[in-house]
What we know:
Layout lengths: L6 H4 L6 H4 L7 E2 L11 E3 L7 E5 L2 E4 H11 L3 H4 L2 E2 H27 L6 H12 L5 H12 L3 H21 L8 H10 L5 E2 L2 E9 L7 H19 L4 H11 L10 E6 L5 H8 L10 E3 L2 E11 L2 E2 L2 H30 L3 E3 L1
Antiparallel strand pairs: 1-2, 2-5, 3-4, 3-12, 6-11, 7-8, 7-10, 9-10
Helix pairs in contact: 3-5, 5-8, 6-8, 9-13
Amino acid sequence: MKYQLTAAVLLLTVASASAQMAVSHAPTTAVATPVAASAPEVSSFQVTGKPVVRVNSAVLTDRDLLREMLAMFPYARVHNGFPKQQEAQIRSGAMQMIVFEELVYQEALRRKMSIAPERVLRDEKKFRGQFESEAAFQAFLKAEMDGSEVKLRRQIKRSLLIEGLLKSEVDNKSTVSVVDARRYYDQNPKQFEHDELFAIQTISLLPPANANPETLKELGKKAENIYQQAKATHNYQEFGLLAEKLSEDDFRVDMGDHRTVKRENLPPEVVKAAHAMKVGEVSPLLQLGNAYSMFRLNAHTPAGKTRFAEVQKQLIARLQTEKTEKLRIALDKKLHANAKIQEM
């Protein structure tokens, strides 16, 4: 859910807006998207301006609904429609959002909130600046605003009123101070406790299936040779490049890097070796069953509690997000209490 709304968001995007409103009902198979080799089956959406929901005395249309659906799922512009499996969920979320926005707008009017005319004109200028040409802007104006700049300014003013009320009732009340975060940290100590952690890179040699004693002996010789090369590395990069070249475990494609691993998820032999090492050192050559492994210790964090200074920024951000969501839900509930909502 979004909490701050700008005119540009509510009015969709620029030059391609009218084209997006003209897609057909018929399902299609879209071209490849930036994130997949082939796109799923999609359901297109045709805008006719028909009413979709009444919010008290205001009627919102399929144009308002599609505008929000595209804001939620911008890849629809690539697909030329919405994935069938997700369309109902996207539509439901968009419907809830446009109803919420309309209720916020009506509440702003009830409170007699105002927007200075010069602010509207300033935002209109910014909005027009998104278009590549005056012709593109006029095409948008014709398709979306019946060719009326007055209607555009009215829509911008509506957006600014929504933004203003949300800032007053949600954003300004969701601030979390360092003191607030520290209080939460002190009251919830277990959330900040952690196990013993190791950051390692590995080079491992794995025995072939049904290996005989001679094969295993050769594997040991090969491991010893690679180990001498690993000991000669001086940093993360050098060890990592050797891992990518010679290691046979799954981490070889990522510099041999396991990132941070809990003690309980490492073999006892690795933990024992790590305890005798300094950060930056390469372990002895370890035999784990019929496999051989060596590792570089990049960090070792004993079990304990993460210091407040290390989590302060993330904690403030998380608490603020949670507080914002609670305030938005409370506002939504309050505005719905006496509202008459009718889907059409």
